[in-house]
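Please decode residue identities from the backbone states below.
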């Protein structure tokens, strides 16, 4: 019954509490090492560039060597921030969307009469990998903070600076693309030298105008259309009247010339009489018989 018991079988070693503790300790050390490696490492994602920041040691500060996409160990007092190194699309919208807009980030602006408007805006941009360390040194912001802070403020200011030069009717009737392109040029002028390449700023959907402005513009558009239609009718009537005048003038001139021709030529008078005579003499006369000379000359 107890033939295979470790107590009776010297070939099967008994469990030692010391060995058990040592095994647990080894497992604990390995787990701790794995945890440290996990928490003290990061991966710069493909399409991004990393910037290492050290807060301890003689080499503390922003490291000026950009980090390409791969896995990195992060020491004590170190962290790595990432910037997009390839073109990506970002948005400022009223509602959350698939491009990362969270909450109301719409852009507000006004026209030259201070009429308020808002719109959703799309931005396509990237960061020059070599400029990433300098960019972080200047602003001390992650890309999300940079995009939602200084870049957004400059885009809003650029759009507002252009819309304040024109009336709302100019925007409503097709001028908004001209405005957004000028705003893009303003933003590029500031951020391009800093290594932020903004290739596109564009409207998403329609500008949100105040309803009173929409009603006013639509009423004015209808009035303009009615005026044009009325002018067209007047022009047609005038053309018809002028045509009749010209026709009457032509007929009068023809009659004048005919009368002048008749009065200056007795032969024509006689010819007209012959053309109208039916060949019969009058049955009643006043004592003399009219005579028509039909002899040829």
């Amino acid at each position: 019954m107890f033939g295979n018991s470790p107590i009776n079988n010297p070939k099967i070693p008994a469990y030692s509490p010391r060995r058990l503790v040592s095994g647990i300790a080894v497992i604990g050390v390995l787990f701790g090492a794995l945890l440290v490696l996990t928490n003290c490492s990061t991966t710069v994602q493909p399409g991004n560039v990393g910037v290492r920041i050290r807060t301890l040691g003689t080499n503390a500060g922003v490291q000026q060597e950009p980090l390409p996409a791969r896995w990195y160990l992060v020491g004590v007092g170190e962290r790595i921030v990432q910037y997009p190194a390839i073109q990506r699309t970002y948005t400022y919208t009223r509602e959350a969307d698939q491009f990362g807009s969270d909450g109301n980030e719409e852009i507000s602006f006004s026209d030259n009469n201070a009429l308020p408007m808002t719109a959703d805006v799309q931005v396509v941009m990237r960061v020059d990998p070599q400029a990433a360390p300098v960019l972080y040194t200047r602003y001390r912001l992650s890309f999300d903070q940079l995009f939602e802070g200084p870049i957004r403020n400059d885009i809003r200011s650029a759009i507002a600076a252009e819309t304040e030069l024109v009336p709302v009717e100019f925007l409503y009737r097709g001028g908004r693309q001209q405005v957004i392109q000028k705003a893009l040029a303003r933003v590029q002028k500031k951020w391009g030298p800093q290594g932020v390449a903004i290739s596109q700023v564009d409207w998403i959907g329609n500008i949100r105008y105040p309803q009173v402005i929409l009603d006013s513009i639509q009423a004015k558009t209808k009035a303009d259309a009615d005026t044009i239609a009325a002018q067209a009718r007047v022009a047609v009537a005038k053309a018809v009247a002028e045509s009749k005048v010209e026709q009457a003038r032509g007929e009068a001139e023809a009659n004048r010339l005919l009368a002048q021709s008749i009065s200056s030529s007795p032969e024509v008078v006689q010819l007209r009489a012959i053309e109208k005579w039916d060949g019969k003499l009058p049955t009643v006369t006043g004592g003399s018989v009219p005579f028509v000379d039909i002899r040829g000359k």
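Observation: The chain has three domains: 17-84, 88-215, 228-278.
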